[in-house]
Amino acid sequence: DAKTTQPTSMDCAEGRAANLPCNHSTISGNEYVYWYRQIHSQGPQYIIHGLKNNETNEMASLIITEDRKSSTLILPHATLRDTAVYYCIVRPHLYSSASKIIFGSGTRLSIRP
Amino acid sequence: GAVVSQHPSWVICKSGTSVKIECRSLDFQATTMFWYRQFPKQSLMLMATSNEGSKATYEQGVEKDKFLINHASLTLSTLTVTSAHPEDSSFYICSATGQSTDTQYFGPGTRLTVL
What we know:
The structure holds two protein chains of two kinds. Chain A is an all-beta fold. Chain A has strands at residues 9-13, 18-23, 31-38, 45-50, 55-56, 61-64, 70-75, 84-92, 107-112. Chain A has no helices and nine strands. In chain B, the strands form two sheets. In chain B, strands 2, 4, 5, 6, 9, 10 and 11 form a seven-stranded mixed beta sheet that branches. In chain B, strands 1-3-8-7 form a four-stranded antiparallel beta sheet, with no helix packed on it. Chain B is globular, with a radius of gyration of 13 Å. Classes of the chains: A mainly beta, B mainly beta. Chains A and B meet through β3 and β4 of A and β4, β5, β9 and β10 of B.
């Protein structure tokens, strides 16, 4: 799997957009970008994934650069409940034989009131 | 998203005993389940991958005779920590995926404390 690089920590004011960057310069053509988050003492929660087009769902938006070497997860209106560790992961398509997820260190996002 | 449950949510046991943790997919058939371990202030570490009806594949450094994994049905996988010791105390998390899901979904985790 391609290696990802994320800032160790970030903070954001409540109600503002939180923009979490991720570098994945060695991503290969068949690898997707996935984002998960882990709230303290809970299991990871799936947020969103994409291949090359920007994606949006009820939780967040994912912006992938044209060269696919980096991406940004956007939480449009951060709330205190969004405080968590956010993991950016690149991996082959779900149904490939190498579908296991290897977690890096992630970004610890703190939302301040 | 799909729902994955774990039981128990926490367990305390004496050193030398064995502990079984269950992972269930509640609304989909999980052809593949994964087991992770997480120590305080660290990231999740993949322990093993199990496909329904097959033997689990363990990651390097994980003792297969100590961490027994069974995935006998499409909705249930179990992890048994045999002869547990205090250093096995950790947060154990499972995830599951199947043909009807678009990604892996994680359980809420089980906190094991070995005295």
